[in-house]
Amino acid sequence: MKDAIETSTIAFIAIVAIVLIFAAVLGLRSVIETKRRRKNRAKTDAEAWTELLGSQLKIAPVSVGDTEAAAALDRARKLHYKAVERLKTAKKAKQFARIRTYALAGLHNLNIMRRRLGKAPGPQGPMPFNAASSTKAAKRDANVRDIPTGPSTGLPF
């Protein structure tokens, strides 16, 4: 009887150990896959914003008369150059996020140039400055409500 109890206890411990090892392996694979997907998403996002900035720079005027507009155009070109150069060597999601920030800042500078020249603003993205490291609570817009609106809720606006 004593041998049967010892054998069943050892078998139970072995099964629990196998299950724990299996769970750890699955968890590790999940973490690795999530990191890979985040990196690919960050890379695609950075490439798309950089490409948009490049296409906007192609249609931008070569030179402008206003000094502030010219400075903004020059900053946008430098940010695009920096983004393209860093895209060649980036390997981590954080590096791709920084490249995305450069491209968004370049688009912001192009919009500054357009406003100075009296033209309509071009494509915009989210505000590029401190976007990745915003630990403070975001300021709420007074015009934004927490109540959902739309045809399905019965609230028109």
General description of the model:
- The protein has one domain.
- The chain is mainly α and 157 residues long.
- It is 67% helix and 0% strand.
- Helix 2 packs antiparallel against helix 3.
- The protein has 3 helices and no strands.
- It starts with a helix and ends in a 41-residue tail after the last helix.
- Keywords: Membrane, Transmembrane, Transmembrane helix.
Please name the defining characteristics of this protein:
157 residues, transmembrane helix, mainly alpha, membrane
* C-alpha geometry: rod-shaped
Question: What is the assembly state of the chains in this entry?
Answer: single chain
Average pLDDT over all residues: 83
Following the backbone from N to C, one meets helices and strands in this order, namely HHH
Structural class: mainly alpha
Helix content: 55-70%
Radius of gyration: 27 Å
Beta percentage is under 5%
Largest sheet: none
Keywords: Membrane, Transmembrane, Transmembrane helix
Transmembrane segments: 12-32
Region (Disordered): 118-157
Summarize the structure.
With 157 residues, the chain is mainly α.
What is the element layout, followed by pairings?
Blueprint: H1 2-59, H2 67-89, H3 93-116
